Amino acid sequence: MTTPTDSTGTTASRRMARLATEVLAPWVWVLGLPLAIGWHATGSVTGALLWGLIVGITGSVIPMIVIVRGARRGKWDSHHVTNREGRVVPFIACIASLGLGIAILVLGSAPNQMLALALAMFATLVASVAITFALPVNGTRGWKISMHAAVAAGSAVILTVAYGPWLALVAVAVVLVGWSRVELGDHTTAQITAGSVLGLIVGGLPYWLMTLGPW
Questions:
Q1: 2 by DSSP, 3-state: which?
Q2: Beta strands in the chain (DSSP E)
Q3: What is the mean predicted confidence (pLDDT) over 31-58?
Q4: Where are the domains of the chain?
């Protein structure tokens, strides 16, 4: 049986993979997740917007402005920055911007959940930088771990911790985005698996530990 294709020869599965990659991209999670946690932390629209947008803007919007501008100027391959070497500036932008957001949260006496979220995100970024550029893997220095998988997996854990076991169904989105990255040839299965484990251990677990009680 032949696979249905469009006029450009793109298969239906690749079209679905491209849609999943865009809809479940890291910047989407990082923009939406803080609003959900902000609502859980404060129980008010004002609180959700105030604290959620601080994390969302510094963790997602500002870095994406840098990334999109760089992609348009040809500094890296696309707004997904699939080439490992092109990730230097985007990672620096993410870390610097989110660091500013964390400082604002601290100075503004933000709810514990919001600070825990921002710190978990920051830890995931730092670990990703170490793996991408410094950690020796298979005799070479650096490895293109999947940020799509890491952010999705960490977000799934954080949402489950905050809202209860039914949110574990978000794991379906983690599997979908992982499949999409492999289907598009942007990552290997090993890179997706490693990214998911990184998100669980460095993103989700610290958030859970930090929200168990007052610091």
A1: coil
A2: 136-137, 140-141
A3: 96
A4: 14-210
Separation of alpha carbons 31 and 28, rounded Å:
5
pLDDT in tens, 164-184: 999 889 999 999 999 999 999
Rounded to an integer, what distance in angstroms lies between the CA atom of residue 198 and that of residue 118? 16
Contact 122, 170 (CB under 8 A): no
How are beta strands 136-137 and 140-141 bridged, if at all? antiparallel
Cα dihedral sign for 92, 94, 97, 103? negative
Q: How far is CA 105 from the centre of its chain?
A: 20
Indicate the average pLDDT of the chain.
88
Reported as a pLDDT band with limits 50, 70 and 90, residue 149 is very high
67, 72, 75, 80: CA torsion to nearest 10: 50
pLDDT above 80 for 111: yes
The H helix count followed by the E strand count for the chain is: 10, 2
Contacting residues for 120 by C-beta, under 8 A, at least 6 apart: 154, 158, 202, 203, 204, 206, 207, 210
Q: What is the mean pLDDT of residues 143-167?
A: 94
Q: DSSP code of 3?
A: P
Q: What is the pTM of this model?
A: 0.87
Cβ count near 189 (within 10 Å): 12
